[in-house]
Specification:
Rossmann fold, 3 domains, 7-stranded parallel beta sheet, 5-stranded parallel beta sheet, 12 helices
Length: 411
């Protein structure tokens, strides 16, 4: 007997949102029929995290919860991850891909917030405000123009000319600064910004250097003891990208020697998991340093935008199979299916799988009305649509095709 089998009801799809993800995300899930939502304000780790993930289908995190391979392997129902942040280094994205789990983030939503803070820090550092503020709190009156200059006409060097770096460029130019940038990829210059060929070329000319790069093998400790002597004497440094792209011990030495006039740091190699844990860093002894607790993107506007942007991507993937915007997955974007059954098949990219899939449907007299395929060196992602009735065991058998990673059906 032919039985119509429906995809998992939305009320049965369990959504876990950690670290106080903005209520915009919760609202969007509810508006789209997802009612099985658990929200926690704190980050999770270890056994507590594994226990929560065991029966979760969709998980949303910010920056403190880490989803490593060992965690993902203990989450058999998990089919997508949302990083409510710009970065995704808190997730083992390649391992997630090989488990058939696309990862989504918000690459644009907190761009303005970070850029505004960088500009504010640039002005504060070049005016020598942090040191004067610290002394005033200790009853010391230091009214002096030493180490206090306008930003107008000064050179801002931007390392990484992506979403945030280019936005910083626009704001800084409006203040009358000269903008130079270094990026490993060729980028379209905005306004009067000028590219330089190497990082050292940038460090030699910049009055303030601000860093906006991801954490990779190429960027780790990219500013260290070898780079600091190259910088202009009395230059300032701002890091609001990733904690491991700067060697803070070397930065501390640069401050002691006077090579650096001031530093602002918002990200660190080791950050407390909660507000209750102590924070320790090599820069805490200096009055001419601004230390902030990873709050570059922590504005009400940014978190509201991030909540909505990531939730939209997660819901779209769950509803339609669209992977547009995934950081670790091949991209397929489709409209919601109205009458067709939509099969989602993720498999290792080896020869013959697509042939096996087509033979599978043909042998069961299931007419495929549309087929979409994208591959990368690791995986293939196929979406097949059919209007045929099918046996309840079709999905079960589909998962048995060799090299299958994950299969779902949507109605």
């Amino acid at each position: 007997m032919m039985v119509r089998k429906f995809s998992l009801d939305k009320s049965q799809i369990k959504v876990l949102l950690l670290e106080g993800v903005h209520e915009n995300a919760v609202r969007y899930f509810l508006e789209n029929g997802y009612t099985n939502i658990e929200c926690l304000k704190e980050a999770l780790s270890g056994a507590e995290l594994d226990n929560k993930l065991h029966d979760v289908h969709i998980v949303g995190i910010r920056s403190r919860t880490e989803l490593r391979k060992v965690n993902l392997e203990k989450a058999p129902k998990l089919f997508t991850i949302g990083c409510f942040s710009i970065g995704t280094n808190q997730v083992d994205t390649w391992d997630a891909k090989m488990l058939g789990i696309p990862v989504f983030n918000a690459p644009f939503s907190n761009t303005r917030s970070v850029a505004e803070m960088v500009i504010a820090e640039c002005i504060m550092l070049m005016r020598g405000i942090p040191e004067r503020n610290a002394l005033a709190h200790n009853r010391i009156w230091m009214k002096s123009l030493n180490n206090s200059v306008e930003v107008r006409g000064k050179i801002l060097g931007i390392v990484g000319y992506g979403h945030i770096g280019s936005q910083v460029s626009i704001l800084a130019e409006a203040l009358g600064m000269q903008i130079y940038y270094y990026d490993i990829e060729k980028k379209l210059s905005l306004g009067n910004a000028k590219p330089v060929a190497t990082l050292n070329d940038l460090l030699k000319i910049a009055d303030t250097v601000t860093i906006h790069v991801p954490s990779t093998e190429l960027t780790r400790n990219m500013i260290s003891k070898q780079q600091i002597p190259i910088m202009k004497h009395g230059a300032c440094l701002i890091n609001s990208s990733r904690g491991d792209v700067v060697d803070y011990k070397a930065i501390a030495e640069g401050l002691r020697s006077g090579q650096l006039a001031g530093v602002a740091a918002d990200v660190f190699p080791e950050e407390p998991a909660s507000n209750d844990e102590p924070f320790v860093n090599d820069l805490q002894e200096f009055n001419n340093v601004i230390l902030t607790p990873h709050i570059g993107g922590s504005t009400l506007e940014a978190q509201a935008n991030i909540g909505l942007e990531v939730a939209e991507k997660l819901v779209k993937y769950s509803d339609t199979g669209s992977t547009l915007g995934a950081v670790n997955f091949v991209e397929i974007s489709l409209q919601p299916n109205i009458s067709a059954q939509r099969f989602l098949h993720i498999h290792k990219n080896v020869p013959g799988v697509l042939r096996e899939l087509n033979s599978f449907f043909a042998s069961r007299s299931i007419n495929v009305s549309a087929e979409y395929l994208q591959t990368d060196p690791d995986i293939g992602y196929v979406i097949m649509e059919t209007e045929s009735e099918f046996n309840a065991f079709v999905l079960r058998d589909l998962k048995k095709i060799p090299h299958t990673i994950r299969a779902r059906i949507l109605h």
